[in-house]
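Mods, move this if it's the wrong board.
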Amino acid sequence: MNRSTIKIISIAFGAVVLTAAVVTYVNFEKSVPAADPQVKKNTPTSQGEKMAPGMDFDVWNSRIESAGLSGFRALMDEAMRISDPALRHLVVTRLVDKWLLEDARDFTKYFTSLEVEGDERALAVLADALQESLTKLDPERAASDDILVIVQRLISYLAGTDPGKALEWAKKWLLDDTLDSALVSIARGMAKGDIQQGLDVISQIKSPLRRSQALAYVGGVWAARDPNAALKWALGLTNVAERALTLNSVLAVLAQTDPSGAAEDLREQASQITERYAQQRAADLATMGLTEADLANDPESYNDLLASGGIPPVSSPDVELLAEAGTLIGLKLGSVSPAEAVDWALSLSGEYLQLKALSGVLDGWAKIDPVAALNYVNGNYPNNVDLVSSVFASWAASDPVAAAKGTQLIAESSYQEAALNVTIGKWAVSDVNAAADYVNSLPASQVTDSIKTTLVKAMSQSSPETAWTVAYGISSESAQYSALKNAFAVLVTKDVVNAAQILERDKAGLPAATSERLGEMVDAVVGN
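Not the wrong board. Structure tokens:
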């Protein structure tokens, strides 16, 4: 792989590394539903409870044939309560048959609602029926975009419950990057049962980006089971970017049980990557007839070349792929021995990696001595808002009142808002009412749009009408809409009539575009 390709992979993974690292070691043992599950019971109608057990398939089929689209969901909820597994499968499959033909998009919404609710038992029943229904579609319907979306959701679900079937569906229905993307989740699902099977799936992935994602996922699963074997395997990967990303995942897991060992492995690997990169960069510059002195003497040309990809950047983008592991290791070390943890973080190769590791150290340090952690930031990084935020996120999780007061200790006053915003966000998780009371006690000049938005997001679920009132007072139109939407979505779900009345009451004070977009949420629920 050439340097430009590695650079593209590195940038692309900036948004997914944390997910790959954390999800792999937290959720690797997700349970698989039973083969013939009973469905989680939603609140049924009295008619459903009386009719469902006694009806035969002919009666069910007649009801399905006569039902309009608006009645499909209610019928499905009722069908899920059928006690006879064989009859339930026949009825659910018949309903899915019709649903796919009449409105596949609405079926997708139903499937999604079960995923959001975490209703694994209903999903298992629906997925079983869906696999049969899809085989009945004519070629034209099967090739539609709406059906492709459903197949992708089915494969995503099966990747966690029956990766073998998921692989069959993926190979039969998907192509190119869509296939490679599905193989990533399938490889992870396979690895939970058999690491080698997961690696076999990875060998079928053509996209370098998707292959790297899959390696990272499998690395996390493997490290949770056999950390030494996973580490040895990851170190043996020959592609630098793939090795760095996979090590990030493996070391993130090792940080939970052996942070000191993970710290040394990270430092050694970062150093090796940096050294090899520096040698390659020097060779690349020499090939172009350039030296570091040339670049330093002509900064304008240097910046143009760098921006266009004509020359490689000074620091290795591959080292940055280790950042999330650095943060997690730093947290573990910082909560035990902050001074030694700081020394370790600053010994790492690359400023970006150093700061990410230091952010973790400060997070851990603040758990045992937040004032000392803040004093360190004030004395060494007073202008680094990320490090300030790390201290207060950790501090507020354990003592939000003290953290809120501690924002006054920040050396750079312009960063007090960021610290208070982080504090309110963490505080609201444990006690949203106390966080709201504190915000209300502040001078109006300190209650910024950002803080209001944070509060609204935290309180929308429990107190949507109060959240709506807070959001209404946000001055920025875009921020106001975002906050109002958070609160209004809950209001609409709980009582659409009340939500419509609140919107009608307050719409005169809202931008026309905001009122219109919120009104569309009401229309979507009532079916206008």
